[in-house]
Write a structure and sequence with these properties.
Blueprint lengths: L1 E12 L5 H6 L1 E11 L2 H6 L8 H12 L6 H15 L5 E9 L9 E9 L2
Antiparallel strand pairs: 1-2, 2-3, 3-4
Helix pairs in contact: 3-4
């Protein structure tokens, strides 16, 4: 088994419960970790034998482009798509961070993290 990590995927997105957040947007980062079997690809040196991180990145970017009120909702969509499109993935951890959130204080980021296993 093995782990593939994509760190600090940066997007400019329009999530949030406030009307202004949907209009002006904000900076976000996403960290993604997937568990899969890397033994075959470690021997074959062939992309078809592993999880393509270009596809993982595309899923994250596409789902971050769809507006949601809650970061949890975005994370759930990312998890669902990865499980639907990449059967080799057995576990996903995704963390979605809103940078400089408008919460009335000097806060660098608010992050939610979700972990799911293939059922």
């Amino acid at each position: 088994m093995g782990i593939i990590k994509l760190k600090n995927i940066r997007t400019y997105s329009y999530h949030g419960c406030l009307i202004e957040e949907g209009k002006i947007g904000s900076d976000y980062t996403v960290n993604l970790e997937v568990k899969t079997d890397l033994r075959k690809s470690s021997i074959s040196d062939d992309l078809k034998d592993t999880v393509d991180y270009v596809l993982l990145n595309r899923i994250v970017v596409e789902e971050m482009a769809i507006r949601s009120d809650l970061l949890e909702h975005v994370a759930h969509r990312i998890i669902t798509r990865i499980f639907e499109e990449i059967p080799e993935v057995s576990r996903i951890i995704v963390a979605v961070s809103k940078l400089n959130p408008p919460i009335g204080g000097d806060v660098e980021a608010v992050t939610i993290e979700m972990e799911e296993y293939r059922s």
